[in-house]
Amino acid sequence: MDKFIIPFLIIALVSASACSDDEPQFPTNATTVNMMNSDNGQTTIGGSDVYINSANNFTTNDCGIVTLGSKGGFGMNPNLSQIAQDVAVVPGNYYQIILASDVVTVAGERAFPINSNFYTAYVDSWIYGNDNKIIGAKVSYAESFPSTDRLPDWDATIDVALETNGNDESATYSFAAGTQIDAEYSVYNIENSNLSDYLEVEIQGNQVKFNNSVWVGGKAEVVVLVRYEGVYTRVNLIVAQK
Prior knowledge:
Blueprint: H1 2-22, E1 31-36, E2 51-52, E3 57-59, E4 63-69, E5 86-88, E6 94-99, E7 104-106, E8 109-113, E9 118-128, E10 134-144, E11 156-165, E12 168-174, E13 180-181, E14 186-190, E15 200-204, E16 207-212, E17 219-228, E18 231-241
Parallel strand pairs: 8-18, 11-18
Antiparallel strand pairs: 1-10, 2-3, 3-5, 4-6, 6-9, 7-8, 9-10, 11-12, 12-16, 13-17, 14-17, 15-16, 17-18
């Protein structure tokens, strides 16, 4: 009889494991609410203005909503390829809620600042009224923060030393592979220097190249925006003679 019991035990363990993998994993700061739609009280998510309208869609005026689908999860960085202000509420789906004013274009694509926060939400199930009509949804949400080891911290300061290169002074600084630097940058003088008046800056992919053909001394601060996928940071490059 044992030869029959063991296979059944294995099947049961595998089934339990599969069910466990499908269950959403909530972070410790997650909050679960009964979000009533606009016809039944209009509950919002956290400090956002996102609510469920009478058509049972998430809607907002101030935010952008990203649908991650059932394969999403908490702890993911913002995915801004498709962002909208009105999306269908679907039980089993994950969503990201982002303040619209935080989204900017960096190096040709939408990006979210690494020093800001957003909400990740998961729709568990519909809530039905006495007449079996949908009146809201059970939703769990948590405050989330973007992160990536490809980007420096926001407002990180990095020293860059100019080295003699023939008749010029030059230097190249490379960010991590896969990052992109925005073409727009700012240059400031430091310590009463006028280096910024003569410093040539060239951006190519993940590299910033500097050249000083006048041999002016001093220091200059070059501020750039660097993006990796849908997240970006601001970096202060301090350029000076070696």
